[in-house]
Amino acid sequence: MQKDLTLVNPQNYSWLDELEEFKDAYGITQQQLADTTGYRREYINALIKGRKQLTAQAKAKLTTAMRVLTKRNNLDCCIDYFRVTFKSHDAESIIQKIFQIRPEHFYHEDWAFYGYTHKLICGELTVMLSQQPERRHGESEEAWLKRDKGTMIELSGKGCRYLENYLSGQKRSWYDVFIACQELHGRFKRIDLAINDRHGVLDIPELIEKYRNDEYRSRFKGGKIHRSDRDHKEGNTLELGSRQSGVHMVIYEKDFEQWQKQNVLLEDKLPIEEQPIKNRFEVRLTDERADSGIEALLSTRDPEKVIFGIINHYICFLTPTKSKSKQNWPIDPRWATFIGANRDKLSLTVDPQPFDFTTTVGWLKKQVSSSLKLIVILDEMLGTHTLDEIIDAGKLSPRQIDLIQHYQNCNCGAYLDDFEAKEKQSNE
């Protein structure tokens, strides 16, 4: 009980027992629950003692109150996908301006996606390139430029975390990246604004049931449910809107996804209930909506206002009330907490994660450490150099070479000279 606050046991008496245990563990009083829920203390006492029926609304309010009182109801936000295009073919200038690292730190690959012909890569940073097309006879300049794909930067979730490693060292922020893109006349093609729910403010299976039962208001024309058996550890996902539209939202159980992606043996995986992020709510903006979303972030510097302005415009989950028509149903208490009631203001966070060799070391320990140990022992006994020969025969991939350069230069070797000069001057 002390690890989580899901409190979703369908047996009311058991749920109330858990609530009482959790309340006592944190020193929460009935009066504090009353003040936070808006109920009278006598009513709280009657609920806990089982003298009053525990309704779904009362359960939700008590759950929210416990989250508020134990400081486990807060959320944070991050950029989880970013794509921007430029008409320019000057990739070096784009890299220097936006990433502020040396272009030579990128290596070349002669293939790419989305109609681009080749790309430059530095760790998880990807810059896709194209050849400028020849202008056809009689073709207008507008049509010619439209065929020109120019240059594109694409960052996945890992790419965003990788970039944040540089931004942290450069004392820059995502706002600086957005401004640099605008100064180069970039067109924002997609941005994913992700809200991390680390303690289960939302209950995804519960939201899915509300969606199935039409207990919501929405401007979206449709949605999809991906529901799985929890024993198969695939999690649940609710998609709102079309992927082809300018605004698309996805709500899913991030803890299951994190568990699946951990590249270790089953017995060494961090248990699902101990994964750092429980749920993830993504607002995905494309084309004009991406442009307007980033413009709103720059003008307000208030991710709370921007993200929940979009969410509240498109979706709201409700609590059914028999005596009222649907248009007068109240907002679901847990949803109310998610969109801003009884929680701290949402902040745009960074989680720098440099490209490292932790996964490689872990794989060696689990898969081949005994074989390596055998070779070392036999080499010593026989006077041979088998392990050295195996290592010498190995060929490093471009990404492995990139990793070596990062550790060799401690990242500073990648920064532009003018940044290093400014840093040195500020230290003096």
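[next item in queue]
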Amino acid sequence: MRNGTLKDPQNRFVKHLPKRISKQSAIRLSDDLVKYGFNDFMTQCRHSPFVRCNVSPQNRIRDDPPARVITEADGATAKSARKQKIQSSTIKTNGTMNKEIFVAFATQKGGIGKSTVTALAASYLHNVKGYNVAVVDCDDPQHSIHGLREHETGLIDSSTYFKALACDHFRKIRKNAYTIIKSDAVNALDDAERMVAAEDVKPDVVFFDMPGTLRSNGVIKTLSQMDYIFTPLSADRFVVESTLKFVTMFRDRLMTTGQAKTKGLYLFWTMVDGRERNDLYGIYEEVIAEMGFPVLSTRLPDSKKFRRDLSEERKSVFRSTIFPMDTSLLKGSGIREFSEEISDIIRPQ
């Protein structure tokens, strides 16, 4: 950023690496598709605003990296990354970024529960740990987290029971539900900066739910600006091999060369079947350790409770962007331990 204006990304990434401004009630939950009436209702339920003071802005985008960024990475990953050309940033702000931490759950294998884990970790840190959280849903065109928020706001808007439950919850935590914006990998950084500039209460942590493939335009560019990246693994040889290629490329071609501002890259096991042999994970972790990658100690099980959304048929909820997880469902899910582990790593201010 120079003179308060983001530099041309084409110069910034040398053609290799791979945008809520409105009235207070307009985009408290998501974007312009959310009902204004419910946002006003949430604002009324809030006990106090807890407005934070601005701090010195940080240089989110690195200036002028060397020309050689990704040169000999494996196969389709490198070929895709080299094709990711980004257009000039359209947002021009004057030091809006603060001390928020950018975190992404990213992998190049889809169907591994990345969006679910993002929503659950964001919920725990916001509702239980007390941090201010925001989510940028870049997983275009699915936008699963944004879609879940719209589903929940629709239920609350049409149900007296859920209205009362939401009001009680917001009074208890003394703040609104965390902000979710819909974006894509190309515009995610600009959208995140615009969202932070518009928020009265600045987020401590901004989660990015990324597409499930590096071939999506803009993924490498956005990932290079994350403070921390957490990559899910499952005990499948193809998943492990693909994931290790991705993290190795990112570390060796971007982190070690200074092209990425990422401070930490961590792996974690998910969709763990209780019938699988424990020594299988041990064998995998020995190989991963030899490659120099840390693995979180918490292993997330393959459980149907992870898909238990808010509904009229049942009152308890696990996967929610508004309500905290039901205590009885939280037990044995690993989400508490997983989120605590992440919190210890990223250490929000």
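[queue empty]
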